[in-house]
Specification:
174 residues; alpha/beta; Glutaredoxin; elongated
C-alpha cells in the first residue's frame, strides 16, 4: 500500500516538474507568448543555447513559454533538454514552415501565434532582452550629474556628421 502512494507521489511530482511534449504548434496553449528555439543535437551553439536556458531558468520571463524544437527523435530530445523545458521532437515540418536555414534560431510568437521576432544564432544580448524577465526601473536607474557638457563630441554627434564630411575636415581642416 505504501509503495502505491510513493509511486503515485513520484508520478505527480514528475509530471509537474518535467517539460511537456507537444506534437505541433497548434497543440501549444495560447496563454503566453511562445519562444520556439530551433536546435539540433550536434550543433555546439545549440548546446550553448540550451545550457544558457538551463542556467538562467529562474531569470526567464514567466510570460514567455520556451519550447525546444528539434529534428531528432523523442529520446534524443528528452536527453538534450533534460526534461526541463517543453519540446517538440522530430519537427521537420515546423522547420519547413518557418523556413529555418540554420540552427540555433529562436522565433518569438505572440499569443495568437503570429511571428513577432526572430533571433538567428546564439545572439546573447538579444536573447537576454527577449527571454529574461524585464529589469525593474529601480535596478536600471543611473544617476547622471546635472548640467555637464562633454568637451569632446559624443558618439551620437559623430554619427550625425557624414563620413565624407569627416574626411574632408581631416584633409583640409575646418
Amino acid at each position: 500500500m505504501k509503495f502505491r502512494y510513493a509511486l503515485l507521489f513520484t508520478l505527480l511530482l514528475t509530471f509537474t516538474i518535467l517539460g511537456t511534449e507537444f506534437t505541433d504548434l497548434e497543440s501549444i496553449p495560447n496563454d503566453k507568448e511562445i519562444a520556439l528555439a530551433f536546435v539540433s543535437n550536434h550543433c555546439p551553439y545549440c548546446i550553448k543555447l540550451i545550457s544558457w536556458l538551463k542556467e538562467n531558468k529562474e531569470k526567464l520571463n514567466p510570460n514567455v513559454r520556451i519550447v525546444i524544437v528539434t529534428p531528432v527523435s523523442r529520446e534524443m530530445t528528452q536527453q538534450m533538454v533534460d526534461n526541463q523545458f517543453d519540446y517538440i521532437p522530430a519537427a521537420i515540418p515546423l522547420f519547413r514552415q518557418f523556413m529555418i536555414r540554420g540552427v540555433p534560431t529562436t522565433i518569438i510568437l505572440s499569443k495568437d501565434k503570429t511571428m513577432k521576432d526572430q533571433i538567428i544564432g546564439f545572439n546573447l544580448p538579444k536573447l537576454e532582452k527577449v527571454l529574461l524577465k524585464p529589469k525593474t526601473e529601480e535596478n536600471t536607474v543611473t544617476s547622471k550629474p546635472a548640467n555637464t557638457t562633454p568637451s569632446h563630441p559624443s558618439q551620437e554627434q559623430k554619427k550625425e556628421e557624414s563620413w565624407w564630411k569627416r574626411i574632408w575636415n581631416k584633409l583640409f581642416g575646418k
